[in-house]
């Protein structure tokens, strides 16, 4: 009964009702549940609206709507459980990522009840099937573990900076109590598993070794979970838990990328503090920017050692400048706050940075600055590339320290990358979600005239993990590789051709091909066509695809390779121009000749024809009549029979036998050859 | 109405109901990520024309303002950037269609695109490595999943995208129930270097005349049964054979080598060692990426099976589960049979765009050699390990005399000789098919319809039970 219009009206009403729900009001929630119960025919629409609503609303309003969802699935059940279940992971995780700790705790409780049957119900099945709730649980556990690392590390780095100016005592107790007050998380067990060699190489590689450096460091990709969202979005969080890659635990010769990244991270933190102290000093900002770029560069690419040396030197230079006034750092940098109060210990500098860059900027910056380190695994999380404003290879290491004259350039770049709101002062306090800008980012940015980004580098962040492929992170810059980058379409078949010199040449060949084929189609319409035989295995292996060339029966050339002596070429003559001759029949079998277009010769021919004197015979007839092997040998299995097919003359017994013999002879070496190839492959593999 | 044949009456009556109904034209406009999903029965057709924007079907782009006519299809047109389509059909009810309006967050197409781009990255790396003289190969991807999850569509899409970006993927079909560039009942492989003909499943089977869409040359082997477990030993031996040929081509053809393979599979029958069969395919083709569509359970199973395993080239085997498209529709047995019959008819007679003329010929019984493909005894099916057990090697082929049983059946013409050993015949690839129109047991003559007018010579013919006999070709 529900017409489209009705559904739409209903959808609107329901949406409005949801928007009216501002606080956790039991009555309103019950009311919405009743609506859902009475309108199950609109279940799809309702679940859609609710999910969209949840995605859209401000974090502090999410909880009531979540309660609506909870109430509906518990009190109404199917079909809502089905509709919500489908995208529950996303809905839940998105909300979870944005809300504060209190709400999270509520959400945890809610999730717990979803795994159990409805209290008082006779149905023993859980509210949501385990395959819906389990991924969420797993993601949460992983996120917590990584959040822990992030917080610990953040505390440590902050303290190292602070510590230089004052008491050295702090890091030690903190290291041993990784759980900040109020968070209630357990420290992950793998936290201490950092190899000693690495610590050593770090100390060597670090141009500004910290005397107070605690002996244990955490693997990079764990320490830098974006502090703004201690529950990172699923791709990032799942990714963060990849098993360590060999590179981390193995002692490295030369400069360790990890050590470098560590240093950079430390510098970034330092610079951020610096920025918050001197918000008007453009040089610090440019350096910070350079550092961030350098960081992303390091993580997205495997730089050769010599470049690493360069990078290291630059860092050393920067480190000197930041280390120079260590005493000043002490007071201005706020001590990280406990998690229970703010979701992130790094949230403190927000005040100053926000005033500088506009609210939300810090979140984006931090998300960027800290999300990128995860990338140091070869397969980084999807969001990163999209967010990084310039493609990695555009920033050359030597540029890093070069001061940029215009302080606005950083802001502009950030704005361009969608990290900053267009107007700097803004009222909303919602952190910029780090996926959203990626869609809006115009990519590739038409700045810098450097190397065009290669697909290999751009896709480096995609991992063969469902989480990386599946998280619906749309990468418009990659899509352009299949559209704009390929040039405009051929109007006849839709193929794309580039506009450069080579593309033009290809297009000309292509259009010629279309023209020729169309012409030939018109010609052949008058003549009968038929399906041709498939080609033989060996021919198929030896055939190569032809693009924008006429389809040439591969029998000719491939056969020539193997049995050039036996079947030098197709036996044919061009169709005679003389009308008398053109109507002639084979004097032996009295049948007419078949006319066929031959691609090789680019003309119409009579296959299997032989001119003897002024008469034309079927080659096979002639051979048979003459009983001579001189002509017969020209006609073997590799002649047009399989592809050109038509062969009027009767095949003589002797000829058949010859073919058989040939066929047999062909089969055996063929087998050998194949096994040979295969063996070769296996050898290579071994 | 349920009596067969009476169904013709109402269709014959429709012209009176709508005698003046001219072609109806609708304009469909799609926003980015939307899909226009349509079903059109074999008996009718619809024509799509891209008016503006860009649109693609299974990864192959539509050319602007070129009419594409579909018949007997359940498919979709999707767009990344928005488009406007003009849809023309002879009658308003000639087809069934709707627009799906997902966002970028919702459509699994985005994950397929991400997958493709990742593959492109790997191909670029492989090309570089090959350029440096290393033995690298492009990625070899196997797509698995339960029935009706869009496996073939994904393979087609990945092939279409790869081709568009100038690569030459080798597409391998290991699902004998549906043929690729060949008839059902075959296993085949082909290299796609040029644009696909989107109005057909995979494009046309090679024929004598020129065609507007470049032709792809398939290599096909005849299984002659629909399900792998009907004769697992034969199936595996053909797969190995196909793998040898495909790998050899890959090794010798640098364009194909750097692009890699895309392998379509049949839904594994878990009860009958279907996963073992998948493992066999993975090993034979050195698959290094397995995509599982629409089944977390199967993903988990395959992850368990392949975790820590390496290909013969020493690469890790990745198993990734992706969502199926919401637009996948169930194709019932009747639809599939209709599609099979259409394929067979097209093989001999061509399609609306060009008609082909097959040849009828009469052959004496002793002029042909026919082998029947045996179904494996049930004991052998139950224990797939028999494959390697020499003592249990029973005949897979049995030489038979032509009989009335063969009427309306398809026989595969093999690239071998009647004098060859049954094993050689069995392992040969297919030359083509003939259709048995009549068997005269008194005169001992056989009337066959062959695509090519040449004599069959001493080519052995294989008689399987699939594709099933077709009463009216």
TrEMBL record, chain A:
Gene3D superfamilies: 1.25.40.90. GO terms for biological process: mRNA 3'-end processing; termination of RNA polymerase II transcription. Residues 221-231 have a biased composition (Polar residues). Pfam families: CID (PF04818), Pcf11_C (PF21936), Pfc11_Clp1_ID (PF11526). One of its GO terms (cellular component) is cytoplasm. GO terms for molecular function: mRNA binding; RNA polymerase II complex binding. It comes from Pseudomassariella vexata. Residues 162-245 are annotated as: Disordered. This is CID domain-containing protein. InterPro entries: CID_dom, ENTH_VHS, PCF11-like, Pcf11_C, Pcf11_CID, Pcf11_Clp1-ID. Residues 6-144 form the CID domain. It comes from the Eukaryota.
UniProtKB/TrEMBL annotation, chain B:
One of its GO terms (cellular component) is mRNA cleavage factor complex. GO terms for molecular function: ATP binding; polynucleotide 5'-hydroxyl-kinase activity. It is found in: Nucleus. SUPFAM superfamilies: P-loop containing nucleoside triphosphate hydrolases. The keyword Coiled coil does not apply. GO terms for biological process: mRNA 3'-end processing; tRNA splicing, via endonucleolytic cleavage and ligation. Residues 356-467 form the Clp1 C-terminal domain. Signal peptide: none annotated. This is Polynucleotide 5'-hydroxyl-kinase GRC3. It comes from Pseudomassariella vexata. The gene is CLP1.
């Amino acid at each position: 009964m529900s017409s489209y219009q009705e559904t739409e009206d209903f959808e609107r009403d329901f949406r409005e009702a949801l928007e009216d729900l501002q606080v956790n009001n039991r009555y309103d929630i019950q009311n919405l549940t009743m609506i859902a119960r009475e309108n199950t025919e609109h279940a799809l629409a309702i679940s859609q609206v609710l999910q969209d609503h949840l995605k859209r609303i401000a974090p502090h309003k999410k909880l009531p709507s979540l309660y609506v969802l909870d109430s509906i699935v518990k009190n109404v059940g199917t079909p809502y459980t089905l509709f919500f279940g489908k995208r529950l992971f996303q809905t839940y995780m998105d909300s979870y990522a944005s809300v504060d700790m209190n709400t999270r705790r509520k959400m945890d409780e809610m999730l717990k009840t979803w795994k159990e049957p409805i209290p008082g119900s006779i149905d023993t099945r859980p509210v949501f099937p385990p395959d819906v709730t389990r991924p969420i649980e797993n993601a949460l556990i992983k996120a917590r573990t990584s959040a822990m690392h992030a917080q610990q590390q953040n505390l440590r780095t902050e303290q190292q900076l602070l510590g230089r100016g004052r008491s050295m005592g702090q890091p030690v107790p903190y290291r041993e109590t990784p759980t900040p007050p109020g968070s209630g998380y357990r420290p992950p067990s793998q936290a201490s598993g950092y190899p000693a060699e690495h610590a050593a190489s770090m100390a060597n590689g670090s141009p500004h070794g910290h005397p107070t450096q605690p002996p244990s460091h955490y693997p990079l990709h764990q320490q830098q979970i974006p502090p703004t969202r201690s529950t990172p979005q699923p791709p990032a969080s799942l990714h963060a838990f990849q098993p360590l890659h060999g590179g981390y635990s193995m002692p490295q010769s030369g400069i360790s990328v990890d050590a470098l990244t560590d240093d950079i991270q430390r510098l970034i933190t330092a610079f951020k503090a610096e920025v918050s102290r001197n918000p008007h000093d453009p040089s610090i900002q440019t350096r910070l920017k350079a550092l961030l770029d350098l960081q992303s560069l390091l993580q997205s690419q495997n730089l050769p050692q010599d470049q690493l040396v360069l990078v290291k030197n630059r860092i050393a230079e920067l480190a000197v400048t930041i280390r120079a006034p260590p005493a000043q750092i002490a007071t201005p940098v706020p001590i990280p706050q406990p998690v229970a109060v703010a979701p992130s210990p790094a949230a403190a500098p927000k005040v100053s940075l926000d005033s500088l860059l506009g609210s939300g900027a810090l979140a984006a910056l931090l998300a960027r600055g800290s999300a990128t380190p995860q990338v140091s695994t070869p397969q980084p999380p999807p969001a990163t590339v999209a967010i990084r404003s310039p493609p990695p290879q555009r920033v050359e290491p030597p540029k890093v320290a070069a001061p940029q004259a215009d302080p606005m350039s950083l802001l502009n770049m950030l704005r361009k990358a969608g990290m900053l709101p267009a107007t700097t002062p803004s009222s909303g306090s919602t952190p910029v979600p780090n996926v959203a800008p990626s869609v809006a980012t115009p990519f590739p940015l038409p700045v810098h005239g450097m190397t065009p980004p290669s697909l290999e580098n751009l896709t480096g962040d995609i991992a063969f993990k469902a989480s990386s492929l599946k998280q619906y992170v749309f990468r418009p810059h990659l899509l352009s590789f299949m559209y704009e980058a390929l040039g405009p379409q051929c109007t006849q078949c839709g193929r794309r051709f580039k506009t450069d010199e080579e593309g033009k040449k290809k297009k000309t060949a292509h259009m010629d091909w279309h023209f020729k084929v169309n012409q030939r189609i018109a010609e052949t319409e008058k003549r009968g066509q038929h399906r041709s035989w498939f080609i033989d295995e060996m021919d198929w292996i030896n055939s190569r695809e032809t693009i924008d060339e006429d389809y040439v029966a591969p029998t000719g050339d491939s056969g020539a390779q193997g049995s050039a002596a036996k079947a030098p070429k197709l036996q044919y003559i061009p169709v005679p121009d003389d009308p008398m001759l053109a109507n002639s029949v084979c004097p032996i079998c009295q049948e007419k000749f078949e006319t066929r277009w031959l691609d090789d010769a680019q003309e119409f021919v009579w296959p299997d024809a032989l001119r003897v004197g002024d008469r034309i015979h079927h080659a096979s007839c002639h051979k048979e009549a003459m009983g001579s092997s001189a002509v017969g040998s020209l006609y073997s299995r590799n002649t047009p029979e399989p592809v050109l097919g038509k062969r009027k003359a009767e095949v003589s017994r002797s000829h058949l036998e010859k073919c058989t013999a040939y066929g047999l002879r062909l089969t055996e070496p063929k087998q050998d050859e194949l096994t040979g190839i295969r063996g070769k492959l296996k050898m290579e593999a071994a | 109405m349920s009596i067969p044949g009476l169904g013709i009456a109402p269709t014959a009556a429709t012209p009176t109901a709508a005698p003046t109904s001219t072609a109806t034209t609708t304009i469909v406009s799609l926003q980015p990520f939307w899909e226009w999903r349509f079903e059109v029965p074999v008996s009718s057709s619809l024509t799509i024309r891209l008016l503006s924007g860009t649109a693609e079907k299974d990864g192959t782009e539509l050319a602007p303002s070129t009419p594409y006519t579909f018949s007997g299809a359940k498919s979709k047109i999707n767009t990344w950037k928005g488009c406007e389509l003009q849809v023309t059909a002879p009658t308003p009810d000639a087809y069934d269609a709707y627009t799906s309006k997902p966002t970028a967050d919702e459509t699994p197409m985005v994950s397929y695109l991400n997958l493709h781009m990742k593959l492109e990255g790997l191909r670029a790396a492989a090309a570089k490595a090959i350029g440096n003289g290393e033995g690298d190969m492009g990625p070899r991807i196997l797509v698995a999943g339960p029935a009706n999850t869009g496996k073939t569509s994904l393979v087609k899409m990945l092939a279409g995208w790869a081709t568009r970006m100038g690569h030459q993927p080798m597409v391998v079909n290991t699902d004998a129930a549906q043929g690729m560039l060949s008839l059902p009942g075959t296993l085949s492989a082909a290299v796609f270097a040029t644009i696909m003909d989107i109005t057909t499943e995979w494009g046309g089977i090679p024929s004598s005349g020129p065609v507007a869409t470049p032709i792809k040359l398939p290599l096909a082997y005849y299984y002659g049964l629909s399900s792998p477990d009907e004769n697992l030993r034969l199936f595996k031996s053909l797969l190995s054979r196909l793998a040898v040929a495909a790998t050899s081509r890959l090794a010798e053809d640098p364009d194909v080598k750097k692009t890699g393979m895309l392998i379509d599979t049949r839904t594994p029958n878990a009860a009958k060692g279907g996963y073992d069969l998948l493992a066999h395919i993975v090993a034979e083709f050195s698959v290094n990426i397995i995509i599982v569509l629409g089944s977390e359970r199967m993903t988990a199973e395959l992850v368990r099976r392949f975790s820590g395993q390496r290909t013969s080239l020493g690469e890790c085997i990745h198993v990734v589960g992706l969502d199926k498209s919401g637009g996948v529709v169930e194709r019932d047995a009747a639809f599939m049979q209709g599609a099979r019959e259409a394929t067979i008819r097209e093989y001999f007679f061509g399609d609306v765009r060009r008609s082909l003329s097959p040849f009828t010929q009469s052959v004496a019984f002793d002029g042909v050699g026919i082998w029947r493909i045996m179904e494996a005894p049930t004991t052998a099916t139950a224990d797939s390990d028999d494959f390697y057990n020499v003592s249990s090697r029973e005949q897979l082929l049995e030489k038979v005399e032509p009989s009335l049983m063969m009427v309306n059946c398809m026989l595969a013409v093999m690239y071998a000789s009647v004098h060859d050993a049954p094993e050689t015949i069995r392992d040969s690839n297919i030359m083509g098919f003939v259709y048995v129109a009549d068997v005269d047991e008194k005169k001992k003559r056989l009337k066959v319809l062959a695509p090519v007018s040449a004599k069959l010579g001493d080519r052995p013919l294989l008689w399987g039970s699939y594709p099933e006999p077709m009463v009216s070709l």
